[in-house]
C-alpha cells in the first residue's frame, strides 16, 4: 500500500465507524482516526474502478472544518491563505495553502465562501490540532469569530460519473446546477462539487445523524463503499497532492508545482516573501512524475538516482496505476533533473530500475466544468 497507515489504536472514530465494521472493512489508523482502508477482499481495484466508471462512496468525516465570520473575515483569510479570495462571489470554493513565514506548508485546504464575511475552511484530518492552533495564533488583531466545527460535522463524498444522478434521485439533494468548485446550502446541509479523485463528485457536510442516514440510503441503493486505499490511488493518478507526501513543512507549494494557487500579486499573506523569492530564483528541488520502464512498484521514501547512480531525490507516492496499467510515481528531485524526458533510476530494495520524468498527471481528469 502506498498510503501511510499505522496499526489501529484507540483513535477517534467517525460517525460512520460502526457501518464500516458491519460492511467488513479493513480498518487502519490514519490521521488520528480509525478509518476503512478497503472493503473488498479482491483488493483496491474494484473500488477504484467503481469511481472511475460508476460512483463510489467515501467517509471523509475525519476532515476538519473551521468557520471564519465577522467584519474582518475576508481580510483574515487573505492573510493566512495563498490563493486570492478578495471580492469572491458567494458560493465559490478556492484551493490553496497556509504557509509558514519560510514558505513551508502548514496545510493545503479548501476555502468556501458561504456569505459576505462568512467562510468555511476544510482542512486535513491529521493537521486539525496543528492548523487550529496556527489559525488562532494568527488571528490576533482581526475582528472575527473563529470556530473549530470539526467535531460537529460529518462528511461523505460521492464520486464518479453517476454521482449527480445518485445525489438527486437517492438523496433527493438537487445539485445539477452546481458548477465545479461551487457550494450551496440546503437547510443545514452543505453540498459542494469539488472531488479528490479526478472524477465528477460531491461532498455533503451535515450533522452526524444526517450523514448516517445518507450513508445508509446510498449503500441500500447499491453504491460501492470505498476506503482510503482507492482514495489514494485515484487522487495520485490525476496528480493531486497529499499533505505529508507532496506537501509538508519542508515542501513549499512552489516546489510542489502548485504556484498557480499562490497569488503573489496579493498585497500580503504569510510566507509571501519567501515564496516570491523561491519562485524568482527557482526552487532547489521540484516535484515530478516518473514512469518506470518496468512493472516494479516504487513506494514512498524510495531513493531516486541519476544515471550515474547518485541519489538526487526520493519518491513521495508510487503505485502500479490501476487506470493506466503503468508503474508510476511522484518524486521530489533536484531541480536540474526535473525536465520532462530526463532519464532517472529508482532504487527498489536492492535493485535499481530505469525510468523517465513525465507529467505528474498520469490519468486525465473528468470533472464537470
Protein described:
The chain is built from eight helices and 20 strands. The two termini are 32 Å apart. It has three domains: 138 residues, Probable tRNA modification gtpase trme, domain 1 (Gyrase A, domain 2, 2-Layer Sandwich), CATH 3.30.1360; 85 residues, Aminomethyltransferase beta-barrel domains (Alpha-Beta Plaits); 75 residues, Aminomethyltransferase beta-barrel domains (Elongation Factor Tu (Ef-tu), domain 3, Beta Barrel). The mean pLDDT is 96. The longest helix is centred in the middle third of the chain and has 13 residues. The radius of gyration is 20 Å and the shape is globular. The strands form four sheets. The protein has a six-stranded mixed β-sheet. The protein is α+β, with helices and mostly antiparallel strands. Keywords: Aminotransferase, Membrane, Transferase, Transmembrane, Transmembrane helix. It comes from Prevotella communis. InterPro entries: GcvT (IPR006223), GcvT/YgfZ/DmdA (IPR028896), GcvT/YgfZ_C (IPR029043), GcvT_bac (IPR022903), GcvT_C (IPR013977), GCVT_N (IPR006222), TrmE/GcvT-like (IPR027266). The glycine cleavage system is composed of four proteins: P, T, L and H. It catalyses: N(6)-[(R)-S(8)-aminomethyldihydrolipoyl]-L-lysyl-[protein] + (6S)-5,6,7,8-tetrahydrofolate = N(6)-[(R)-dihydrolipoyl]-L-lysyl-[protein] + (6R)-5,10-methylene-5,6,7,8-tetrahydrofolate + NH4(+).
